[in-house]
């Protein structure tokens, strides 16, 4: 499924079917105005995809975003937002230009700590090139300073959610990406969801079998470029 979704860059809006619209003579109901904006709604109003990013990304900013992906009071190993104790989605970080963090792939099982996972420079280059292409960044542009990847553990989630593990992963991934957008906006960072996820043979290079694991979502993170 992931391969089909990532078969190529999006084609734009031309040629899309018209959206299904309600009949023009349908009942219209005016909704009352909402309450005054809160800090959260102000962050929501500024949220957007920001592909133009640069480094180095301060480790404290990366830690703030990663820490916000975990629910307060959850037991160690439980990831946000709704994965519970099955750890069905585990945040990983592909670091490239983060202060105090060597380039490489890391797993984040608890807030405030990264655990290095073996990866080769060639593996990282291939992933970065594909991510840059999906972000529509110039071929000469450096890769995002950090890429957050959410890894699904199929055996665990299919045991917890028999027959409906895939929707659970998609729900969790969508909520996690939106949480990352809010956290990046709150910190004044550039962030953008992206495709180009490691898959197939690339997972095997990491020691993970595609039948048991998959990256469900990715989020590029960095400092906002002066031009952006």
UniProtKB/TrEMBL annotation:
Pfam families: Nitroreductase. Residues 1-55 are annotated as: Disordered. Coiled coil: none annotated. InterPro entries: Nitroreductase (IPR029479), Nitroreductase-like (IPR000415). It comes from Streptomyces albus. Residues 143-222 form the Nitroreductase domain. Transmembrane segments: none annotated. One of its GO terms (molecular function) is oxidoreductase activity. This is Nitroreductase domain-containing protein.
């Amino acid at each position: 499924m992931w391969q089909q979704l990532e078969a190529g860059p999006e084609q734009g809006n031309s040629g899309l079917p018209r959206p299904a619209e309600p009949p023009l003579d349908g009942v219209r109901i005016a909704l009352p105005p909402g309450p005054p904006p809160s800090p959260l709604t102000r962050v929501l109003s500024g949220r957007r995809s920001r592909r133009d990013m640069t480094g180095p990304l301060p480790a404290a900013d990366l830690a703030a975003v990663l820490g916000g992906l975990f629910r307060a009071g959850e037991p160690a190993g439980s990831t946000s937002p709704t994965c519970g104790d099955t750890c069905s989605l585990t945040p990983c970080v592909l670091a490239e230009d983060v202060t105090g963090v060597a380039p490489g792939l890391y797993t984040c099982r608890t807030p405030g700590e990264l655990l290095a996972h073996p990866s080769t420079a060639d593996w990282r280059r291939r992933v970065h090139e594909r991510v840059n292409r999906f972000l529509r960044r110039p071929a000469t542009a450096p890769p995002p300073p950090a890429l957050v990847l959410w890894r699904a553990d199929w055996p665990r989630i299919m045991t917890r959610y028999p027959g409906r593990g895939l929707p659970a992963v998609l729900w969790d991934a969508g909520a996690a990406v939106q949480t990352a957008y809010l956290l990046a906006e709150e910190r004044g960072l550039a962030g953008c969801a992206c495709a180009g996820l490691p898959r197939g043979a690339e997972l095997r290079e990491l020691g993970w079998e595609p039948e048991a694991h998959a990256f469900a979502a990715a989020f590029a993170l960095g400092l906002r470029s002066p031009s952006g």
